[in-house]
TrEMBL record, chains A, B, C, D:
PANTHER family per record: L-LACTATE DEHYDROGENASE, S -2-HYDROXY-ACID OXIDASE-RELATED
UniProt-listed NCBIfam families: PRK11197.1
Membership in a protein family: Belongs to the FMN-dependent alpha-hydroxy acid dehydrogenase family.
Annotated protein name in UniProt: L-lactate dehydrogenase
CDD domains: alpha_hydroxyacid_oxid_FMN
Domain FMN hydroxy acid dehydrogenase as annotated: residue spans: 1-380
Annotated source species: Phenylobacterium deserti
Taxonomy of the source species: Bacteria, Pseudomonadati, Pseudomonadota, Alphaproteobacteria, Caulobacterales
Length: 380, 380, 380, 380
């Protein structure tokens, strides 16, 4: 199958990855209502077809925090990408760099920030608030030392949501994977992955967490260490503590509510990712795209606004930008592509988004993406 | 299959129970429109994601009629539970007690209130209005003697609704079950159930009704006795008669309409279960969740309000509480779990609801369930 | 399969009848949008659950044009019923009489009005406006002579709509049936029908039309005679012509529009069937139930209003009456039942509607069907 | 299968054509949201059933630019029709002429305007704006010389949209077809087509483009020449250039927006096709039918308005005319019919549309199609 769309990479990943991993990427929490809303609410928005405008020049570049983007898209932090393809974070970071878009490394990446930085420009760095502040401090300092330009501080995971698919598939985090694969035929049924990742993609530790789990030689309990370390006592005041260690831009990820957006601004955040964690945390909350306009109204002038959740095409990107986002992040889109075919597939997927965005700009008469606004949308 | 959600217990029950019993639990009346609305209307409500609130302390306990609930959930009266697992009412009552939530015994339970009380705290007691008032009086006195703290008086069954699935499956109530199982292979196809319930779970009488059907040694015609005894002449005035025998709190179950809610209050009821009998009575009526806010407006300050119908997760529980319920009752959720795996499964199902409620509280920033209100919901 | 609902008779008819006949009954015109709307719009209406009303007395009888109905339901005119069961019109008329509801004989029935009247009370008589007025006159006089109490004058068939299913199934009206059955295995595949109807249910002529097609001994071209005789020049003025021959009540069938309803009143019609011919004529028009309230507003005080289209249960009947109908007619419901099991099945189907209507009345607190009104519905 | 409806021709084409061609005709761009909206929005419109009007006279003829139409329908420009049936454009043009409706030849037709004109009245001529203006000029002059009465200037293709189905099916335009068929079994699996079109329908060049691709003897790269030649710098000013060469009526095809409609008028266009290219260009834009009323309001008095997109029946035609179109064009409807059965099938399909339109007129009481207006629609 030739992949024509982001959805096709999903199908290819479904074939290549052990079920337990595919379900982990694909699923959302509980009944997956919010996951569905993310996609459906984007689909329901109508672009406004315009014709006979001179579209010779088409500028889809933008700039955020002084960093140029060749198009208004970035790779969202996705945990354990090193399990979807050999040293997955490195591969994705390379594809992103080649495409001129930022890659954001997850706290629970398989590759460390140092490993990624040896192969590609220093990634944006995503951080969860953990109970062990000493450890957090060292993580921040490592990212700073590696040259990460932006800190993405994820706030919608004070506690992990429950994803039914993971319970059903028997997934219990990275640590349980080896037994799991031994016990089942899931691995054997996917020899491409087995060879590429399982045999040749080691070590399968969570790079940033490895040090914290002292004395552990065996691949155990990284995720359970994480689960215990999510800190639900965090408040906006704690952002001060982060600020003292991190002097670069801080983007708060996981805000859906106007009051929270204002609070983030007041607490000194430089940007926001309007997000519900791709429908993986509290199921039943609104779609991120539906939250965007009101947040843009409230703080759009004062902060950089990003959106993630449900972006499946360049058309979706244009919709989000028309409603107030500076750029979009994609999560599953690149995780599927990575699982489907590593760096090359991520690169092709990004080309697809770019081509789609170009068509969307041409047929809405938008010559410069920085000018995208509500006039590109068709409302009754 | 590991059960991750309430829906998974449904699937497990489907496998374990004779079809005739599973359909009885699962079905609704007529075209099952109201059954669908109960679930769909809950699903359509959006929770409001909030972040960066100190959620260290989380209090999901509540108190009703002086009785503590460890969480705002109770087991709704479900008839014939002793057919889904051996002495099913006892098993469910034990699981409820261990979880710190109330169990409500149905008028048409297999186990008597005395049998349940020997194994667990005295259950809430559910009563249908029957024509034989002398018999009703004796039932009420037995419940009182057993120590039942609350009377649940079900008013939405002046006549039984028609459930097409039961007609199709050949179900004609408990009395017909033995022949049924002999004639078909339904029982043999479910050996786990056959051993547990059919052979070792006797007697299969309706505990509370058995005495009324005098002279009957054989397992016959309990339900047809019931069917003939539903009393459609009952009015609010008859509540006085009940009140004379029962001096504890009376909760009227089966109210959807504001006028009826006011009438119940005027007639001296202490609480209401906003309910359409789980979509098993008059098909085509509104969902119970859609009826809740207006009833809460009208009588919420003066009565304890409960909701049942369509509750399938802890997220649903939070939605109902945000709209004015003190607590929710679950019907099919526990009946499925009981059919799937007896007491242990009911206990696990309750843990699941609790864990889901916790996530929902943490991500809506609700530290105390007693404070839940409309500010936890996202409305446009 | 035991039939629990109207939908179950549909399934039984599907099994028993040659496909060509089943599709003829079941289908609607074009994309069947209106057929779908008839059912969906009824389903979307919410009944209002009321409790604790003394429902001992339940009166579902009504009276129209001095004729008592045991319940507010009648059998709509359905063409060629004698092909669904042996002498089908007679069987249905008997079932209707036993149930105390009117049966309306179609212009294109297999049995004549005289044959029906020998076996049951004289039926209501349905008439299409035909070009051959002399023939029409004789039909009206035969109906009058037979004692038909009411004339149903169908106005929504100035030209036949196209039903794609009939084209696909190869159905070309009654006349083509014999060849059709010879050529295909459709008849052989349905031996019950073959014996009952095809071999023993003769003659297979259209009773009322037979005389008009003079000289025809063979079963040919009745429907094509009909098709050529539909008269699209008819206007309200022509009702005068009918009135001169028919002095009993005239019910105009096939009105959806308020202006047409007013015109019918002005032209002297005594009643209306709000109808779109069961979605068999102009696809894309509104559902009959959605047309009812405005027509009831406009002429409800001055004419008897009936509704047909999409009635599948006693619950639907109550909804229609709450919105202004005096009674409902059912078309497919009885055609399916007749095809499924002849008179006995029609009788059981009517019992089902009655039982459903009783439950609906009891749980909406409606003691007398003549009092049904909008207060039985739940609107936001 | 006898084709009863436009949808049936689709099914027949699916069986007869190589998959790669069927998918090309059938598909839309991206997620096919707009393709779906075109059909769904037409379906949602309700016609207004009227009865008892004298419908003896029924006039469905109209006139545009002095040219009589026997009914308000035309065949939209569809590329490569000569691949769906032998010399497909000629066959379709003949069927259109016989039916008294216009045929519009696509820029990327297999047959040239001269070939079509030898067999049928000169077709309307559709033009894309190409970079090679000299070549465009010669095309316009050939069409003029051939006698084409109307120029259809398509403006919604400044760049080709991406159709995922074509990527997946491996379709890469006409040029790649031979290899494609050799490599796969797609051709062999469709012997009817293989014989009719592939072996006997040559040459398989794009008639109008052939000359431009100089020196090419082999069937190569026509479409890639086209793709490179789409000109996205075109503005309304360029219409002047066209006007200098073409002195007949110019219809601008591909306008959805009121501002664009006004600009087209100001630029001197004589007519508009309200269109989104059948959902094949920018996915996510509104349906053409939903765009029609506002464009009719803005410029309806001053320009001839046509609609295409989603027309699947004569009922749809009446809906579009009621909302302000003078006539409708059908794209897939005739492409499917052509693929299903050549000229004869296109002729039958047009008869079906005509018969459907007649029923729709009769049952909405519309005697003359030129009088169709909003009073034929039922709105709440
Ligand atoms: C498999 C997977 C793992 C993820 N891991 C993280 C993570 O470690 N940190 C984080 O902040 N977000 C994580 N996310 C959320 C993404 O950053 C992003 O918010 C989400 O995927 C956007 O929705 P989309 O997948 O519909 O594009 C993860 C998402 C997925 C699908
Ligand atoms: C199998 C079954 C039996 C029931 N039996 C009774 C009963 O005996 N008495 C009663 O008041 N309600 C009875 N109910 C209704 C429940 O108490 C409750 O109102 C309903 O199940 C709530 O909807 P849910 O199943 O969607 O949670 C029964 C429900 C089910 C599913
Ligand atoms: C098989 C069939 C034949 C019909 N024949 C006639 C007829 O001869 N005359 C008539 O006025 N209506 C006829 N109708 C329409 C019915 O009288 C009635 O309007 C319609 O069936 C009501 O919709 P329902 O089928 O959803 O109940 C027919 C309907 C069906 C289904
Ligand atoms: C297979 C196919 C080829 C087409 N080729 C052209 C074309 O060459 N030029 C053009 O202006 N429009 C073209 N169109 C668009 C049609 O002219 C028309 O706008 C569209 O098909 C209308 O939608 P419908 O298919 O739902 O009727 C094409 C459409 C299809 C389906």
């Amino acid at each position: 199958m030739r992949a024509a769309s982001v959805g096709d990479y999903r199908e290819l990943a479904r074939r290549r990855l052990p079920k337990v991993l595919f379900e982990y990427i694909d699923g959302g929490s509980y009944a997956e209502v919010t996951l569905g809303r993310n996609v459906a609410d984007l689909e329901a928005i109508a672009l406004r077809q315009r014709v006979m405008k001179d579209m010779t020049e088409l500028d889809m570049s933008t700039e955020v925090f002084g960093q140029p983007f060749s198009m208004p898209v970035g790779l969202a932090p996705v945990g354990m990408a090193g399990m979807y393809a050999r040293r997955g974070e490195v591969q994705a970071a390379r594809a992103a760099a080649a495409a001129g878009v930022p890659f954001c490394l997850s706290t629970v990446g398989v590759c460390t920030v140092e490993e990624v930085t040896r192969a590609a420009p220093a990634p944006w760095f995503q951080l969860y608030m953990l109970k062990d502040r000493g450890y957090m401090k060292s993580l921040l300092e490592r990212a700073k030392a590696a040259g990460s330009p932006v800190l993405v501080f994820t706030v919608d995971l004070p506690t992990p949501g429950a994803r039914y698919r993971d319970v059903r598939s028997g997934f219990s985090g990275l640590s349980g994977l080896p037994q799991f694969l031994n016990q089942t035929k899931d691995g054997l049924a996917h020899p491409g992955w087995l060879w590429d990742v399982y045999l040749n993609g080691r070590p399968h530790t969570l790079g940033s967490v490895a040090d914290a789990v002292q004395g552990s030689k065996r691949v155990t309990d990284f995720l359970s260490w994480m689960a215990k370390n999510f800190d639900r006592s965090v408040t906006w005041a704690d952002l001060d503590w982060v600020r003292q260690i991190w002097d670069g831009p801080i983007v708060v990820k996981g805000v859906l509510d106007v009051e929270d957006a204002r609070a983030a601004r007041a607490a000194g955040a430089d940007g926001l990712v309007v997000s519900n964690h791709g429908g993986r945390q509290l199921d039943g909350v609104r779609s991120s795209i539906s939250a965007l306009p009101r947040i843009a109204d409230a703080v759009g002038g004062e902060m950089e606004l990003f959106l993630d959740g449900g972006i499946r095409s360049g058309l979706d990107v244009l919709k989000a930008l028309s409603l107030g986002a500076r750029a979009c992040f994609v999560g599953r889109a690149w995780a599927w592509a990575l699982g489907a075919g590593g760096e090359a597939a991520v690169a092709r997927m990004l080309q697809t988004l770019r081509a789609e965005l170009a068509v969307a700009m041409i047929l809405t008469g938008c010559t410069s993406i920085r000018q995208a606004g509500p006039e590109l949308l068709d409302r009754d």
